[in-house]
Amino acid sequence: MGTNCRLTGGSWWSYYQAWVTAASGLDIDHMVPLAESWDSGASGWTAQRREAYAYAQGAATSLVAITARSNRSKADQDPAQWLPPAAEAHCRYVAEWAATKLRWSLAADEAEVAALREVAVGCPEQTVTYEPAVQGPAPRGSARQRQGGPRRRDAPGREGRARQRSIGA
Q1: Residue 27 or 159, more confident
Q2: β 26-30/63-67 pair status
Q3: Collapsing DSSP states into helix, strand and coil, what is residue 143?
Q4: For a Cys staple, 130 with which of 20, 43, 103, 137, CB 3.0–4.6 Å?
Q5: How many angstroms separate the Cα of 29 from the Cα of each of 65, 72, 131, 142, 167?
Q6: What is the structure's pLDDT at 20?
Q7: Alpha helix (H) ranges present in 104-148?
Q8: Phi then psi for 63, rounded to 5 degrees?
Q9: Is the CB of residue 61 less than 8 Å from the CB of residue 27?
Q10: What is the pTM of this model?
Q11: Is residue 56 assigned to a domain?
């Protein structure tokens, strides 16, 4: 894909909000914004790992087609500050947010965790599914280790093995 590529047709849908008829009305959004990832531990990553994150290699839910309006509204906010306009999208959104944070071993602050838990209470059927990033573990002394970021309750597995857990647990 070149730098001048753009969407030109079709019917496009943003689960955050509503149907969009023109491709020009969509943005491709990072589930966990780049600025949020930086503050959550990506600042200690290698350039290669940051690039892999930016292009969300290997995880379809890390990049989301959303309306330009929702993308501007979300900016670099976490779920404590912003949730999709459509209430029926909240369970999916927090599951994909948590999966991205877990996949990349990114930290979550107290307000973020509280917001995720608050939404998760109403999502008994929603699970978090993720594959660990293949770029290696978080560096020693990373934000996740210092701030007590998201922890897996399952035993560590081999990279490339999908993990699932209920977000309402």
Answers
A1: 27
A2: antiparallel
A3: helix
A4: 103
A5: 6, 10, 20, 25, 22
A6: 67
A7: 110-120, 143-147
A8: -120, 130
A9: no
A10: 0.74
A11: yes
